[in-house]
Amino acid sequence: YTTNSGAATFTYNSTTISSVSNINNISINDYICNTWNHIWYRVTGVNSSASSVTIQQPYEYGTATTAPYISTDTIVGLYNTVLTPN
Q: pLDDT category, 55, cuts 50, 70, 90?
């Protein structure tokens, strides 16, 4: 599990994250997370010259300010299970 970190501007209801620092360490199919709300988004496009990335679905939280992020190419899913006696 490896991570990359920096700062970026997350905009509500937009699929574009702008002003991404350390953008050269982000690739398509990586995942990026605003560390203020801990929700992961899959990266579908990287524009190094514009310092922006495109995410799979619009960003869900109402902030357009610069925030710290973390990104990775490894996501582990956690699932809740319900166990019932037989």
A: very high
CA distances from 46 to 7, 33, 62, 78 (A): 15, 15, 22, 27
DSSP H or E run through 42: strand 39-47
The answer to whether residue 74 scores a pLDDT higher than 70 is yes
> Any bridge partners for residue 8, and if so which?
67
Give SS3 for 36: coil
| Alpha carbons 30 and 41: distance in angstroms, whole number | 9
How many angstroms separate the Cα of 64 from the Cα of each of 16, 24, 29, 84? 11, 22, 23, 45
Dihedral pair phi/psi, residue 76, rounded to 5°: -110, 125
Question: Which pTM value belongs to this model?
Answer: 0.82
CA distance 3 to 26: 10
**Is residue 59 within 8 Å of residue 15, measured between CB atoms?**
yes
